[in-house]
């Protein structure tokens, strides 16, 4: 059993992706070793562990899609592909000695605040108790499947892009692809040359711009590695270039007309068939839905073995996909490129705060938090990549580092003042979110289209409506006056019942 700890909070982190890793590293740097990372999978890495579909890559340049405190000069491409990003994550786990804190195959089933701290239940029956709970589960962790009648009756192969079945040979097969999101844009050109027939079911075409990707040359790699400050300057140039895009999303949406011109020109240059051009040209303002990037998606759609089917799907039967206008397409396999359940913030399990109130009840009208990080009525619970911290224009790692800094400021205060209970004041959280939602109403995301940015009530609970440096300024200092502070008995992180997880030959906790 873990040693009882006094004078500092003990911490449980749920998730081992970029956000969980960043939290763990900053705890280690602060000399806090009494924490555990609960990971439901058999390995660490989060999104970049799970998404191994052909062509999987980041849509933020590599030098910016990495921790500011752990730059990497050896990225081989402008936009890194999945294996390289996952390798970076693995190196960070090893370099900062975080791996020994990780408990694998530890899927969370629920959590409750019992007045003293948090009890986190796992599906296998174990219970972890901690004073502080950090959700680093991430918004892109649970695949979303379309609600299509008969989907379970299909006799062929079917899988989501985030759980790609690499054992299934697509060569010569008739394949249906449902969804035209970021994953589809990447994997469709990769599988098109292999399949016998590819039918793309497109409900709404996305805006797609050219992807300025290329491999770095040997001289560039050598310069990044040997010239002091060059990689940092390059990173800064990327950041400010991408940060300027917030002007079009949130400040002057009319700027997005220029993006529409670029998108239409990209279609004209890539597709010869005027009918197909019309079919893939969006009817909404760029940015209302996520803007995607690809140099080969449109070209793939014009290949002889590809058919684009616009409109909605009515049903799936044992061997075919049937559209609402009555067309039936016999296929051997269905691949769902339908994104993630992004509105299942924290994680999609039962969470109970003060007085036994569930988070589901509190969030019945949509998720909200203070600075996307703390939730009134749920003391000592911190959410990374929480409500309205998502971005449409820059790197999420910048937001993650900002949130982690804020949480660390809180934890340092708790240690210095022997405070073990922090709960954000509800009026402050309410006024913060009212201002945030008012600003979102003026953004391009509220210009009329239906997107995964909006919940079932049409409320944008996903995106941050301003510059990322503005969010960093808001999270630079933890203000005690914003919170109810108290003292409860400090508990060590400990699992129960037996057996304890054992890492490195000793009890992990």
Automatic annotation (TrEMBL):
The cross-references to Gene3D superfamilies, in alphabetical order and at most eight, read:
FAD/NAD(P)-binding domain
* A Pfam match: Pyr_redox_3
Query: What highest taxon heads this organism's lineage?
Result: Bacteria
PANTHER family per record = FAD_NAD(P)-BINDING DOMAIN-CONTAINING PROTEIN-RELATED (PTHR42877:SF4), L-ORNITHINE N(5)-MONOOXYGENASE-RELATED (PTHR42877)
* Name of protein: NAD(P)/FAD-dependent oxidoreductase
Task: Please name the taxonomic classification of the source.
Answer: Bacteria, Pseudomonadati, Myxococcota, Myxococcia, Myxococcales
């Amino acid at each position: 059993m873990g040693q009882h700890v006094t004078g500092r909070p003990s911490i449980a982190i749920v998730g081992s992706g970029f956000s969980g890793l960043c939290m763990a590293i900053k705890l280690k740097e602060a000399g806090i070793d009494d924490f555990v990372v609960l990971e439901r999978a058999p390995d660490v890495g989060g999104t970049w562990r799970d998404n191994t579909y052909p062509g999987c890559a980041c849509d933020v340049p590599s030098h910016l899609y990495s921790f500011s405190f752990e730059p990497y000069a050896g990225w081989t491409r402008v936009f890194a592909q999945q294996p390289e990003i996952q390798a970076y994550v693995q190196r960070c786990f090893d370099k900062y000695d975080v791996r020994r804190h990780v408990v694998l195959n530890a899927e969370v089933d629920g959590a409750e605040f019992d007045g003293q701290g948090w009890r986190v239940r796992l599906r296998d029956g174990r219970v972890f108790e901690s004073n502080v709970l950090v959700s680093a589960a991430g918004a892109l962790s649970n695949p979303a499947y379309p609600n299509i009648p008969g989907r379970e009756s299909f006799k062929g192969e079917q899988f989501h892009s985030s759980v790609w079945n690499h054992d299934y040979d697509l060569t010569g097969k008739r394949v249906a692809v449902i969804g035209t999101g970021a994953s589809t844009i990447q994997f469709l050109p990769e599988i098109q040359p292999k399949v016998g027939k590819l039918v793309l079911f497109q409900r709404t075409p996305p805006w797609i711009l050219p992807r300025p990707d290329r491999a770095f040359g040997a001289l560039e790699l050598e310069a990044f590695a040997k010239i002091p400050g060059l990689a940092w300057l390059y990173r800064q140039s990327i950041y400010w270039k991408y940060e300027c895009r917030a002007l079009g999303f949130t400040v002057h949406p009319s700027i997005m007309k220029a993006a529409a011109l670029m998108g239409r020109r990209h279609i004209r240059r890539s597709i010869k068939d005027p009918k197909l051009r019309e079919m893939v040209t969006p009817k909404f303002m760029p940015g209302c839905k996520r803007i995607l990037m690809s140099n080969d998606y449109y070209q793939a759609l014009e290949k002889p073995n590809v058919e684009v089917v616009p409109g909605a799907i009515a049903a799936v039967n044992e061997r075919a996909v049937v559209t609402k206008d009555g067309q039936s397409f016999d296929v051997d396999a269905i691949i769902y490129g339908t994104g993630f359940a992004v509105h299942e913030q924290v994680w999609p399990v039962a969470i109970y705060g003060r007085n036994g109130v569930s988070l589901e009840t509190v969030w019945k009208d949509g998720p909200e938090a203070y600075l996307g990080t703390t939730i009134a009525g749920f003391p000592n619970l911190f959410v990374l990549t929480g409500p309205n911290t998502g971005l449409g224009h820059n790197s999420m790692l910048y937001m993650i580092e900002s949130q982690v800094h804020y949480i660390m400021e809180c934890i340092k205060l708790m240690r210095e003042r022997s405070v073990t209970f922090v709960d954000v004041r509800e009026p402050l959280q309410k006024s913060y979110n009212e201002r945030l939602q008012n600003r979102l109403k003026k953004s391009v995301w509220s210009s009329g289209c239906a997107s995964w940015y909006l919940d079932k009530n049409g409320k944008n609970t996903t995106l941050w409506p301003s510059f990322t440096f503005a969010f960093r300024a808001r999270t630079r200092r933890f203000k005690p006056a914003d919170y109810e502070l108290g003292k409860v008995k400090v508990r060590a992180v400990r699992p129960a019942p037996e057996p304890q997880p054992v890492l490195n030959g000793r009890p992990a906790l």
